[in-house]
Every structure is written in structure tokens, then in C-alpha cells.
Amino acid sequence: MWTRLVRSALIRRRAAFPSTRPPILHRPIPHRETVSLLLPSTESASRFSHFSAISHFHQSTRLFSSDTAKIHEEPPSEPLISEANEITGDSDFGAMNAFDENAKSELEDKDFSSESTVDYFKDVRGLDEDDGVGQVKENDPEKVETLLSLLQSSGTANGSLESDFERMNLGLNDDLVLKVLETQYIPGENLMCFFSWILKKPEFKLTTVMLDAFVSAICTENRRTEAYALWDLVNEVGDKENGLVSTKSLNSLIEVFSRLGKAKAAFDVLNKFEELGCVPNADTYYSTLEVLCKRSFYTWACSVCEKMLSADKLPDAERVGKIISSLCKGGMMKDAHLVYLYAKDKKICPPQSSIDFLIGSLSRIERAGKGSEKEIDKELDKQNVSSALEMLNDYPAEKRKYAIKPFSSVINKMCWIEDVEGAKKLLLKMVESGPHPGNAVFNCVINGLAKAGDIKESLYLIKVMKSRGLKPDVYTYSVIMSSYARGGEMEKACKIFAEAKKNHSKLTTVTYHTLIRGFCKLEQFDKAVDLLREMKKHGVHPNHDEYNKMIKSLCLKALDWETAAKLEKKMRKNGLILNGRTRALISAVKELDEGVSSEISGPA
Would the pTM of this model clear 0.90, i.e. be above it? Predict the structure, then answer.
């Protein structure tokens, strides 16, 4: 094809010379000699562009003829090409004798390829760059639209999609691939099929930009099948050529697995970073931790946290707060506290709600249920409380006054681990600097001091409460009364009881039971029975347990079966039934008392 075009160009250029060439002033040269002189070969197309200049080569005064008539002699008027051939564009090379066999063979053997061909045609035809010669052939827009329509459809009627791609005979350039990847409403399975097909083509060169665009397009659909297929394809690409897979693509995979709730898959992607030549960033660790905590893989989450802190890749403050809260929900308070400390060193301040939640988690009271084999680690509790206290000291003044909940939780935990002295110090610090403690905090510390036998400090805190317009609750009064009762100081216990009745219109069974037990211990059963009768007047109804314990004490310690029998009758009136063993105890004591009385009266 190239040879034919060259020949046509040469013929058209050669045919135009007779009308434009100036008169010949030297000796006429035969036609064959002229052509041989001017076109010895076709080494360069530039000779044709300067053909008119070469025609003046023999204009020398030495060669001028003296005959003026000969000077103006016209050149031969025989045309070099017939009109018919000029119209059709064909050339009769046998008639024109312009080329010999050697010149013809040189044209046929000429290499018209690549840039040399483009330059050659520019010189011959006078073409510019914009004429389109030598440019890469672009895909037909109609074919591109057909391809996009095919991909957007749910299936193909003619068989597999790959066979349809082959029949279109498209040029796989970057523009076409990116256009497909950026087109909306293409199902993920069709996009996967297209991308797998172009990867098989040797002329297609995959780049990181294309792979990122492909991964982003697939991940927007949030479909499990396509997500796993995409992960397999990315793995295959990364194994074949290192450096193509980017952190952006792997992060997109982790995010789609996170949205799908596939924690193990996201964890596998994270572990593949180093093998694929990528470096995890803050988004990588956060997305992985999010899905691991969501699916309760807290052990893996702790290992990811350790990697994140070692790599110094903490996310922003808000995400750090979410990580802390998620770890606390899984019982990983120690790891959450490490994240907090690292963020603090990096001048990253998580949201206050996350800090409060962490303090509350560190101060959480864990109780072993009945039949539970779980043991309470008191040493760990002490470490957690110590960490929580350090965090309380970091509270700024403007936020401290609103932090009553974290301060209260720490005090409760300190009383639980029997660090009452530390709880009292923190309480007094709250009174001095805030946040202002309420009844619950005071009562907790007073109860702890009273159980520890420090009645003096308990009474002092009660005075502090009253000075701040607060009053102890019924349970606090009961604890102080119990402390006095254990020491046999029933008079002081009765004073506290009187104060409790004054400040509270309704008491509890615990309050009365505390005093009744103290009087029974001192064998003052009459006062104990009076308290039992007084309970109903203050709106407190004694239950079966109160009656049962009182009757047993009367029978076993006072041998007063008569009073016990009266209490049993009172129980029946109140709708309570005494158990059989206690009734048998009353009968036994009665028989014993009657037997002893008969023996004593008999000898008399």
C-alpha cells in the first residue's frame, strides 16, 4: 500500500513540471538523460521539493548557443503521463521510461514504517502534524458506546462477554479502560470480566492508576462475592509484579470488608501489606480495628493496636476516641489506656466522652456470680484504679466541674477494693476543687469508713454533708448503727436511729434489723420485740425472715416460748406462716419448760 501511494505522489509531482519549468537556455538534453540526471535514485524525498532549482543546473554562459532562435527553442511538448492516467491516478510506467528497473526496485524495497514513513510523506505531500498521518488510531465512538452498553447490561445473549469483546476489535489504550472504569451502573461481575480480559492481552500495560480506579469501582457496590474475587485478583497482580498494588487499593478492600462485616478478610489484607510492598497508614489500622471490634475479635484487635503504636500511625482525635471506646466495650481497658497515653504524648486529645468512658471502664466493679469460676484479680483492680486516678488529674479546670460521673466511679471502685483512705482523700479534693460530690459519693465513702470501724471519720463526713445542704441516706445511717451495735454501744446506735427517723419518713427493714440484732446480742429481747412491733407504725412490714429469726432467738436464748407463740399468732394475722421447724422448736421449748416446772412442783 505504501509503495502505491509513493508512486502516485511521484507521478503527480512529475506531471506538473512542464507547465511551471522556465525556458531552457542551454543545449537540449534528451528526455531520458534529463530524468536520469535529476532522479538517479529515491534516497530522499527532499529532492522532489527542490526539483525546480535543480532544473537550472546547466544555466551557464559557457554553454549558451549563439543562435538566438535556438535559445528560445521550446522543450518537447510530449506529456509525461496520459490524461486518462492522470484522472484515474494510475501510471503507465512502460510508456514514460522515467524509471529504469533499478529505480523501480529501490522503491519497492524502501522501508516505509514508523517515523521515517511519516517524515517521508510530509515532504512528498506537504502534510502537517494536524493532518492525522502517523497518529495512534482512536477507537470508534460508536464501538465504545456499544461496549459500555454491553457492560451495563445484566448479561449477554450471544455467550460469554469475552467473546463479545473480541468481536469488537477495540484498541486497548488507557483512555478506553479509564472510561469504562469511570462509567456508572456497570455491574461488578461485568467489570471483573472486562478487567480480567484486558489483563490477558499482551499489548495492555497495567498501571497503578488503573488498578486503583478498578478497585474503587468494585468496592462501591458492597457485594461479598465481588469483594472476595477482587481480593484474589489483587493478590494475583501483586504476586506477578511488585509495586503495582498501592496502599489506596488495599485500604479500599479493608473498608469494603469492614462494611460487609468480614473481620477475618480485613485482617488478612492487613497482614499482606508488607508482602505486596505497601506501607499501612492511619486509615488502614483504623478500618481494621473497627471491623475486628465490631465482630468481637478483640485479641486480634489488640495485636493491630500494638502494630499501630509501633508504626506511629495514629488517626485523628475522633477516631482515636472510637478506638478507645471499642476496646473498652470488649474489656480491653489496659490496651485502651495505652492508646490514650500514646495519643497524649502526640498531643492528640480524644473526645471527652471517650475519656470518661475509659475511666468508667477502668473503675468498673466486677462481681463473680454464683457458680462462676471466674476469680476477681484484686491486683489488676488496683492497677486500673491507679490509671483512672492519673487520668482524673489530667482533667482541665473547665471540664472538671462536669466530670461527676467519672469521679464517682473511681471512688466506688476504691471503696470496693477497700482503699477507703484514698477514697476519702479524693472526696475531700472534690469538695475543695470540684466536681461537687452528691449524696451517693458521700454515702459510699461513709459506708466504707463505717465498715472499716472508723466511726469518727464517718461522723465527720456526715457533718460535711450537712454543711453542704446534703443528708445521709437510710443505708448510711444503718451502716453507722451497725458499727455501734457490733461494739455493744446500743445507746449511740439508738441516737443515730432517732436521727434517721427524723430525716426520713420511711425506714427500711435493714435499719430495724440492725438494732434488733444488737438488742438480741445483749439479750434485751423485750426491746427487740418492741422494735418489731414498731416497724409497722413507720410503714415497714416485717417479713417472714424477721419473725423467724426473732422467734428462734426467743426460744434458744431466752427460752421464752410464750412470747414466741404470740409472735406466731401475729404472723398468721399478717398472712405469714411460720415454717415447720420453727413451730416444732416452739413446741419443744414449751414441753421442756412444762416438764421442768412439773419436776420442780412435784417434790414440793
Answer: no
